[in-house]
Amino acid sequence: MTSFDLRRLSIRSGEQLREDVELELEPLLLGGQAYAPAPDSTPAGLTITKTAGGTLFELRFALTLAGPCFRCLEPAELGLSLHAREYHANDPGAAEDLRSDYVGDDRLDLSAWARDTVVLELPDKILCRDDCAGLCPVCGKDLNLEPHTHEEHDSDPRWAALQALRDRS
Fold it and tell me: What residues contact 112, with CB distance under 8 A and at least 6 apart?
């Protein structure tokens, strides 16, 4: 886990600190599949700006997630370039939305913040390519390698009454 010790900050209101950090990221589990960040440790730029009422944190980093394609299960990679901002009020009595969940015990949890940033930027489906055809729902063959169709079979006779209703409309 990567964190930043906020006790070593020696900046006043209106001042800014820029620091390069190495983020340690764990694999993400999405839909029961693991997507590993490449590399495990990625360089990031952390900017901390003191304001009159709190602290503004900014994090910039890029990474590649590698794992199975959502449609065909072949290897897929997704490149992400990320920029996140987080504000933390100085006043302990400030509203909850003005206090960062990543700040605790004078430490900024960079790994958790980076993980949440990655998850929020993910597309609906991670694909090996945009036009991936996926797997055949009947036989399970990869439709990218063997495009094919299957003959339709007669439906189950127990559904005949519903079929008749559908045909009437």
Answer: 1, 101, 102
